[in-house]
User: Fold this.
Amino acid sequence: MLTFLRHIFLPHESNGHRPKILHHQSLAAFILIILSILYVVPPIQQEYPSVLGVSYSITVEDLVRLTNEKRKAAGLQPLTLNQELSSAARSKAAYMFEKNFWAHVAPDGTTPWYFIKNAGYEYQYAGENLARGFNTTEDVTTAWMESPTHRENLLSPNYSDIGFAISSGTLTGSETVLVVQEFGSKYTKADQVAAVVEPSSAPAPSIVTEEIKDEISVPKNESQSAVAASVNKPLIDSKSSTFNLSIFIFGLFIIILAIDAIYIERKKISRVFAHNFDHIIFLIIMSLAVIIMGRGVIL
Amino acid sequence: MILSKIKKHLGYYSAFIIVQILGLILVLMSAGNKQLQLVAILGTTIFYFLFSVVHHLLDHDLTKKIVLEYALMGCLGLAGALVAFKHI
Assistant:
């Protein structure tokens, strides 16, 4: 067994003083195995979502609780969970999945305010925060609090209501969990007498009041973007497993290439193809890219 | 041996590392824009392959095995990143 492992992972006479795993055939086999994952995982995910899927634990209750905890700490009034705003958030999430965009304003120009007003919420102030790729409620809230513009929405005294949608699906080519947070406050009778309109240049995340443009029906794609259970715990989490697999493969090759480089340096072995330094740099860059992509993003 | 090789080709390695880091910065800067991140990863991989091959060509030591080694390592890096890209 040890001989076999040495043959695979360490330079030795048996493998021509180059680990077998670094031979061209082995590299080609590794590439094929990795690429096959791209084709094997999606059908399994579709057929057996309880076995393989995106695992997350984000609940509306926790999002409301954490948001209000932050507001309380800032000396502000808590926000009330509003069904109309939650409906607007669900429509926005569905629209994002259907039109495959990650933005506050859709490519066709549909703004967040359209969804809010279409849900029957007549707002004086409204705002929107978005998040994708997070696994827990704490991570989402922390990311929003660390961004000045999102934090401004969370801690705005102008809002009295809040609504959420948590949806999973494929967005811009990646399996993801999307969180839409809509803020608002309704007109009071006094406000209707003398409303002050302060249009904003950026649609969100910012405090705005804006008139709604022409009515457009909100398309829905239930199969793709129906509001999912806010807690999803499949047997195997596709996100963390593919992330760990990539990092493991890169790490394995970086270590083996480094050992090989040290070995040929010490033994003064001359090789036609042994560009370990280039490969190590390239694989480190790829590992860091995967780590960067693995982080959730907010908008 | 490796250190002397790096010293001998310091210009090549410096440019190689700088462009690789620039590719990584583009991935970082385009957080949220998955398509742009994919382009950055693809560009970094293509650069890694072409720059290395051209370097060996100019150095008059380019062989089919060297081209194959860079191509395979480039594919390995790209495949690993693609799997992660698709699912994270």
